[in-house]
């Protein structure tokens, strides 16, 4: 049997985007694509519903849809968005980085100490904060990529180790004195009506979106997560890529650490603890939108903002701080459930 | 049928009659009948796609069969359409597959208990004493040189197979069950095969009926008393092993005169070799030398475990070589990584598509460009429009049936997935294309397409090396073949000698004692 021309009848439309049916008889394929579209935008729809609800609800109508609240929600989440995006990289390779929160704290403490205790120049202190993140990321990456240790165990150990070291060094006290005014200004003031940290977040988002979506590096990272053995057999240097991913997540945790120094006017030693869990929630929530079933940058940002907006609304409506845990926990389970279901369906 | 009722207890231990399995319009099994006498080893043989494994699956109750067939065990008859794994087990059929299902880091007793169940003592705790006594007794009955506390991984290969057999038959005091062995010798060295056969013969003398599936013909003839040959889903013949020669069986399996099977491909004679392998040793492969010219298709014939896959992996830089040289074009190997091999123009389509080649949750497009992603990275951006256009072109050119290039690869049929993997590599215009079982699990139409694509790649100047356990396929598509037996290249075959029967002879390792 040779060169059969692609028959018109019964042949499904070969297309990369879902499109309206051209003729009857291709309904099933179109239906499947439509379902995908529905799933793709479910979180966005939910987000809009949440915003509308709190904007119309009598108890939050005056407080929720205000510039002040939006600013507060966004700038309050800057550090979280950055560590969340960092977490995407190890997750894509099929691993976990559970040390992002601890690295964030380490970086904040290193930066603040260099500033207040040693009085080093501003640029150097920032570099010290970033370098501590790069360093821990590299250690994690080497242990996972070269020594082939389990990523959960390595980063969990690293997280506990760093938390211990930081507590030992700081005696559990926050470092809030002697912080440069330039730094705190960056963390608290606005540029053209927008909190300054947001600009940094946008830069990180754009760079990572570009790296993962529009470079061969991003392709290879996705391939490793999909099937490591097959990735090796299409010539991908797996250890190098896995190492890079952990260095990126460590570095972004370092960036977030320095940012928290700016936002809080110093290093708050308990701050990092609360970052890991919401970051995972947001990444998994994000995997249910844009490119369904895949961890992606824009989805993760939406995940953070969605949780933050919901928690803000609920808090304004009178709920207390426990709502944060409840909402994050429930959202993580639902997000993992949905992305797993999507995965199963794709596999059928 | 030439079956006699010569066995002591009257009727056959297992009788399969009129079993058919239909997939759509094709018949995988067509009115198949087999009789296995008590106390005998009955061999089931046939080529690739002859229906052997489908029949085993029907017996095991995992493959539904068409209505009408009957499976009789002793004096009880079961309609074939009512078979299920539970019904098959209850009827007394016991299976040991090529993958024995033993856990190497657990003891023999634990392996038994996982299969049957743990005997419980008071308070629902495991009674290790009862378990060990029971297992020791079974090991004794089967003459297995092991204790219940031996780790399964510490047993010799034949011993592991025997433990799996003993486990399957542990509750069979009176040899009432039927033992089905599916390719049990595929990964055993020769002397281990003899050990296994000795104990199987002993079991048979004690009255055990054994249905034995294998494609190692010499082994089958030395073990079985009767054979049934399947071809194209039909039971072609049943004969006594004692009065049948290997040659006759091979002809029954092939079913046709060889020289009429396929037209002989135009052989390449001119030109200097572009691929030269000198004294290469890697894994089980030792001291192998051969060369391939541009445009030539070289087949590698050999049994499972002969080193055929290791040879391809070594050429692709995926398996460390101990010694030797591999030259591809002007690049000297052996290559240390797939990346290096790819840079020299080597492409490799592995045997295990799902495990080693497919990105099942990724799109057809991503799978197509997986080995060429950097090509679309221009002006610091993945040129997705170009990539999509190229992907659509490949989908057309390779006749891949898919709803869209955005569909996950998993939505495609096996044959179309295979074409995607082939397209991934062939688009690179390789100098050396390595194919391991390229048509495994692929239907007849896609198979013909794939042959054509391979020929075209060769015509474009690639040297092609194909590993296949389907000897007809090798004879059909290759210009020349080399035969691997236990890691050594024993012979080169071309011209008239390149036919399935001859290859079948050559790939068999000599059986000790025959």
Topology:
The complex is a heterodimer of chains A (348) and B (514).
Chain A: H1 27-40, H2 42-56, H3 67-76, H4 78-92, H5 100-116, H6 122-146, H7 151-170, H8 181-188, E1 190-191, E2 194-195, H9 196-214, H10 216-226, H11 228-232, H12 238-264, H13 276-286, H14 297-316, H15 322-347
Antiparallel strand pairs in A: 1-2
Chain B: E1 14-23, E2 26-36, E3 41-46, H1 52-60, E4 70-73, E5 76-79, H2 85-91, E6 93-96, H3 108-115, H4 128-141, H5 157-168, E7 178-182, H6 190-205, E8 209-213, H7 217-223, E9 226-231, E10 234-240, H8 246-254, E11 275-282, E12 285-292, E13 297-301, H9 308-315, E14 323-328, E15 331-332, H10 338-343, E16 346-349, H11 353-357, H12 364-368, E17 377-378, E18 381-382, H13 384-397, H14 414-426, E19 432-436, H15 444-459, E20 463-467, H16 471-477, E21 480-485, E22 488-494, H17 500-507
Parallel strand pairs in B: 3-8, 3-9, 6-7, 7-8, 13-20, 13-21, 16-19, 19-20
Antiparallel strand pairs in B: 1-2, 1-4, 4-5, 9-10, 11-12, 11-14, 14-15, 17-18, 21-22
Helix pairs in contact in B: 3-4, 5-6, 14-15, 16-17
Largest interface: A-B, 39 and 47 residues
- Class computed from helices, strands and strand pairing of chain B: alpha/beta
Largest beta sheet of chain A: what is the strand line-up?
Answer: 1-2
Main sheet attributes: strand count, strand direction, barrel closure of chain B: 6 strands, mixed
Q: Segments of chain B where pLDDT lies below 50 for 5+ residues?
A: 1-9, 257-265
Verbal overview:
The complex is a heterodimer of chains A (348) and B (514). With 348 residues, chain A is an all-alpha fold. Chain A has a two-stranded antiparallel sheet with strand order 1-2. Chain A has helices at 27-40, 42-56, 67-76, 78-92, 100-116, 122-146, 151-170, 181-188, 196-214, 216-226, 228-232, 238-264, 276-286, 297-316, 322-347; strands at 190-191, 194-195. Residues 1-26 of chain A have low confidence and may be disordered. Chain B has 514 residues and is an alpha/beta fold. Chain B has four domains: 1-92 and 177-257, 3-Layer(aba) Sandwich (Rossmann fold); 102-175, no CATH class; 271-345 and 430-514, 3-Layer(aba) Sandwich (Rossmann fold), CATH 3.40.50.300; 360-428, no CATH class. Chain B contains 17 helices and 22 strands. In chain B, helix 14 (414-426) runs parallel beside helix 15 and helix 16 crosses helix 17 (500-507). The chains are: A mainly alpha (348), B alpha/beta (514). Chains A and B meet through helix 1, helix 10, helix 11 and helix 15 of A and helix 10, helix 11, strand 18, helix 13 and helix 15 of B.
């Amino acid at each position: 049997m040779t060169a059969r021309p692609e028959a018109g009848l019964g042949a499904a439309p070969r297309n990369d985007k879902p499109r309206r049916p051209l003729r009857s008889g291709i309904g099933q394929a179109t239906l499947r694509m439509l379902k995908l579209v529905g799933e793709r935008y479910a979180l966005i729809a939910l987000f809009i519903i949440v915003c509308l609800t709190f904007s119309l609800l009598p108890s939050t109508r005056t407080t929720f849809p205000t510039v002040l609240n939006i600013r507060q929600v966004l700038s309050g989440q800057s550090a979280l968005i950055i560590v969340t995006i960092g977490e995407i990289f190890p997750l894509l390779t099929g691993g976990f980085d559970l040390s992002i929160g601890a690295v964030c704290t380490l970086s904040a403490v290193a930066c603040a100490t260099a500033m207040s205790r040693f009085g080093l120049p501003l640029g150097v202190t920032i570099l010290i904060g970033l370098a501590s993140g790069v360093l821990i990321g590299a250690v994690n990456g080497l242990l996972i990529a070269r020594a082939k240790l389990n990523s959960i165990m390595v980063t969990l150990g690293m997280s506990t180790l760093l938390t211990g070291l930081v507590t030992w060094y700081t005696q559990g006290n926050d470092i809030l004195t002697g912080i440069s005014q330039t730094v705190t200004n960056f963390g608290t003031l606005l540029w053209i009506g927008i909190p300054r940290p947001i600009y940094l977040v946008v830069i990180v988002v754009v760079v990572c979106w570009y790296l993962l979506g529009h470079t061969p590096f991003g392709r290879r990272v996705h391939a490793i997560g999909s099937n490591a053995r097959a990735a090796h057999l299409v010539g991908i240097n797996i250890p190098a890529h896995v190492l890079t991913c952990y260095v990126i997540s460590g570095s972004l945790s370092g960036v977030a650490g320095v940012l928290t120094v700016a936002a809080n006017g110093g290093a708050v030693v308990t701050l990092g603890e609360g970052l890991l869990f919401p970051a995972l929630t947001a990444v998994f929530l994000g995997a249910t939108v844009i490119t369904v079933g895949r961890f992606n940058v824009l989805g993760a940002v939406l995940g953070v903002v969605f949780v933050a907006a919901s928690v803000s609304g609920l808090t304004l409506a009178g709920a207390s701080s426990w709502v944060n845990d409840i909402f994050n926990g429930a959202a993580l389970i639902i997000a993992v459930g949905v992305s797993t279901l999507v995965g199963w369906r794709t596999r059928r | 049928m030439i079956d006699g009722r010569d066995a002591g207890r009257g009727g056959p231990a297992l009788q399969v009659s009129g079993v058919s399995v239909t997939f759509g319009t094709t018949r995988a099994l067509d009115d198949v009948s087999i009789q296995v006498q008590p106390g005998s080893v009955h061999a089931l043989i046939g080529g690739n796609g002859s229906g052997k494994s489908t029949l085993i699956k029907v017996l095991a109750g995992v493959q539904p069969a068409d209505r009408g067939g009957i499976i009789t065990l002793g004096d009880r008859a079961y309609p074939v359409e009512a078979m299920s794994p539970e019904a098959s087990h209850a009827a007394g059929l016991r299976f040991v597959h090529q993958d024995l299902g033993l856990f190497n880091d657990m003891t023999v007793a634990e392996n038994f208990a996982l299969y049957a169940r743990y005997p419980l003592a008071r308070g629902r705790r495991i009674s290790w004493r009862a378990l060990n006594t029971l297992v020791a007794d079974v090991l004794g009955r089967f003459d297995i040189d092991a204790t219940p506390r031996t780790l399964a991984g510490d047993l010799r290969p034949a011993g592991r197979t025997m433990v799996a057999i003993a486990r399957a038959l542990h509750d069979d005091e009176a040899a009432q069950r039927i033992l089905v062995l599916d390719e049990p010798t595929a990964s055993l060295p020769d002397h281990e095969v003899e050990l296994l056969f000795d104990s199987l013969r002993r079991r048979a003398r004690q009255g055990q009926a054994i249905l034995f599936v294998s494609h190692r013909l010499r082994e089958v003839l030395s073990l079985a008393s009767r054979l049934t040959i399947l071809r194209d889903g039909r039971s072609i013949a049943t004969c006594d092993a004692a009065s049948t020669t290997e040659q006759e069986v091979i002809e029954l399996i092939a079913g046709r005169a060889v020289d009429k099977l396929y037209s002989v491909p135009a052989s390449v004679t001119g030109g200097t070799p572009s691929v030269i392998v000198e004294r290469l040793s890697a894994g089980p492969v030792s001291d192998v030398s051969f060369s391939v010219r541009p445009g030539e298709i070289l087949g590698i014939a050999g049994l499972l475990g002969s080193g055929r896959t290791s040879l391809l992996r070594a050429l692709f830089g995926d398996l460390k070589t101990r010694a030797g040289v591999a030259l591809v074009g002007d690049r000297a190997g052996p290559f240390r990584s797939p990346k290096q091999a790819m840079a020299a123009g080597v492409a490799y389509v592995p045997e295990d598509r799902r495990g080693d080649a497919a990105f099942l949750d990724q799109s057809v497009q991503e799978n197509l460009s997986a080995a060429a992603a950097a090509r679309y990275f221009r002006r610091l951006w993945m040129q997705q429009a170009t990539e999509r256009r190229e992907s659509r072109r490949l989908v057309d050119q390779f006749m891949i049936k898919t709803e869209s290039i955005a569909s996950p690869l998993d939505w495609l049929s096996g044959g179309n997935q295979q074409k995607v993997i082939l397209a991934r590599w062939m688009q690179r215009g390789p100098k050396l294309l390595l194919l391991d079982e390229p048509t495994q699990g692929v239907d007849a139409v896609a198979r013909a397409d794939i042959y054509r694509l391979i020929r075209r790649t060769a015509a474009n100047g690639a040297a092609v090396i194909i590993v296949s356990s389907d000897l007809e396929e090798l004879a059909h598509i290759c210009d020349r073949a080399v035969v691997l037996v236990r890691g050594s290249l024993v012979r080169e075959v071309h011209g008239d000698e390149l036919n399935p029967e001859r290859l079948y002879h050559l790939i068999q390792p000599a059986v000790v004692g025959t």
